[in-house]
Amino acid sequence: INNNEVKLFKNVFQPDLKHPQTLAIIGLIQPSGSLIPVSEMQSRWFAQLMKGDKKLPTKQKMLSEIEEDIKAINDRYYASKRHTIQIEYIPYMDKLASYVGCKPNLFRIAITDVKLWFQLIFGPIMSYQYRLTGPNHWAGARDALLTYKQRFIAPFKC
């Protein structure tokens, strides 16, 4: 951390380490959404790297993306010591999900499951969508996405 600026690849990995994939800084981030699913996605990515199933980009690529991310933060937020680790929830989660291999294919879902596609496009963002496919997918993710309203209103039924 220098001047309250964190120079980590996707706010997780330090590219200057000899083996950057062996140390993950989980949760050092201020998402526009919930921190818990972001930390889980960072952890899933780290687990994939530790197992050897995935690889980080080259050091130069990571450094280049760090600079791009810092510029995006500086362009979007007022320059202050507070706005140095801000991220936009959906683009960040989608990017990490693409690294993990669990990003939903909305085009395929639109063709094969219109009801689910409609929920993903027009419903609230829920981290279940990153369990529909890929490593450690969950068979109940689709139902969880489609039945969230029932769980939401259940406590209000008297």
TrEMBL record:
Keyword line: FAD, Flavoprotein, Monooxygenase, Oxidoreductase
The keyword Iron is annotated on this UniProt entry: no
One family name in Pfam for this protein: FMO-like
GO molecular function: flavin adenine dinucleotide binding; N,N-dimethylaniline monooxygenase activity; NADP binding
SUPFAM superfamilies: FAD/NAD(P)-binding domain
KW Flavoprotein (keyword) present: yes
Similarity comment text for this entry: Belongs to the FMO family.
PANTHER family: DIMETHYLANILINE MONOOXYGENASE (PTHR23023)
Name recorded for this polypeptide: Dimethylaniline monooxygenase [N-oxide-forming] 5-like protein
